[in-house]
Give the backbone structure.
Amino acid sequence: MWIIEAIPISRSFFKDEALTYFSTKKLEPGALVEVGIRRKNSLAIVSSSENLEPKKASLKRGPFALKKINKVLADQFVNSEFIESLNDESDYFLASRASLLQFFMPKTILKKSFYSKRQDFVSRAARSEGFKISSYQAERPERVKYYRGIIRETLSRKRSAAILLPTVSLAQDAFDDLKIGIEDRTFILHGDLSAKNLAASWDGAVESENPIVVVGTAPILAFLPPNTETLIVDEESSEYYYNFRHRPFFDLRRTAESIAEKMDLRLVFGDIILRLDADANHIADSSPGRILSSAENRIIDAAKKSASEPFRILSPELLELVSEAQTRKESFVIIGHRRGLNPTTLCQDCGETIICNNCSSPLVIHQKNENQKHFFCHYCLKKEEIIERCPNCKSWKLASYGIGVEKIGEELKKLYPAVKLFRFDGDIIKSRKEAEEIRREFGERPGSIMVATEIFANFFRSPVSHIAVAAIDGLFSIPDYRMHERILSFLIRLRSLAQKSFTLQTRLPGHPVFNYAISGNVSGFENEELKERKKLGYPPAVDLIKISAEDANRATLISRVSALAEELKKAGGPENSYFDCVDFPAFIVKIRGRFRWHILLRLERGSWPARHPKIKRLLADLSPSWSVQVDPPSLL
């Protein structure tokens, strides 16, 4: 008889979400079983087995009787190393194992037609030797060539390879590029696949007599072939690797590294620019220092005009470039960082900003139709009619400021009415399918113009003749320690896609970030940024933990946060070599009528969680009304 600990593949009502049962046979970690939970049958993954004999007497005296496992559906459904890593990630990120497990399990895979074949697939033995970690920093075409070489080497040794991407769109593009010449050995796996396509990919991987290449998103980490030797994590700096919008809050890159170490894999991180706050062993082995560009790169000083000249959304120099591209039937992309027409409306008498009643966010002016505009809140999604008088002082002098992509598009329509104009932003793109359709149509219309926000870089990988950034200065006003890195990474990605010209229109032409971006001087930026972060106490110099709460009552919220902050300061203790605790309001302090507040912990690099047991216990015992993010991607 065996005591079995199993993690339900569902939302758990229990604080310790791993449940205990008994079985007549020993089950290995990773087995798929059916268990009874509150009079219902649920699927669960075995996390551990223990001989029942030594504990038989104590179990008889226990307050409840152990239930028997209903069924064993697959002796080995996921890799045992994945279960070990799940335990580690749960401990590090203070996330429940059930929620983490659910994150990696597409519902379709939990059907009998899948898990019955998976058992045969996992049972094939073949191990690689020696965990090794490296990284490669280069533009995407160069990285694809590098990955193809690694994959060929791996397959020649009769071993399999896996490539992890942060989004479905990126995974599909990587699959299309890497399968060339090895179509019968390359398979894709992600949660958006239809049941039919997932079955075809799954069956092909299981039935292949040769080593395979698996490309996909998070689920591939749970289902790596046992003969895997190489794991590539591409687009390493993507914000989408950190699951920060809802629980469980964790970083998929860390999970990938943990699994690779336990399976003794060769792990490769790749991107055009790698994260600065990654560990030292992620630093690129062959960093180019400077990324070259065949396009003509220029900065246009938007502030350089005479006092008599009116304000222009697009400078004469930029419009001249657009006109030249039109004469040659070359496509042009113009980037702005804000949606809508005007991001901010101010009273010119009292200085009041027009904000949402439910949120503390400025209302953005959007175009309803050709003759009608409205206010829109990007947080609670509330629409309001445009007001004519200031709600604070009743003045009629309201003025709109800032440049949104709708404003840029409006200007281009006036100047180039016969040209096909595309929009590519969150107000237009509602799904991956819509984004890919617009991308396809834009590519088929030479000489067209596209106005886009930052999401352009998430979907476009093919070169574009001309790219210009018309409005990005506003990002520098956002008080986040990673903002300079984020801006540079975005600009470098755009620059790498520009074939003939890359242009930056700015009122801050002397800003160092712009100069690093135009010159492609990545190493120069990294050196200066790392010095600044060390001085100010930000990663990679320290570890960060952000604890957040919200409440409809501001005073109640501040009281709760202050009380927890005091407890954390006491738990930090004088024995820790470095510890700092501070609380502060969120950047947008109120959303949907609820106030938001953060506590930030700064800890010595690498000390979490082993050297902070008291803090860990405090945070683990918090109610679900609190959210805890370890290594948060943003402090806002």
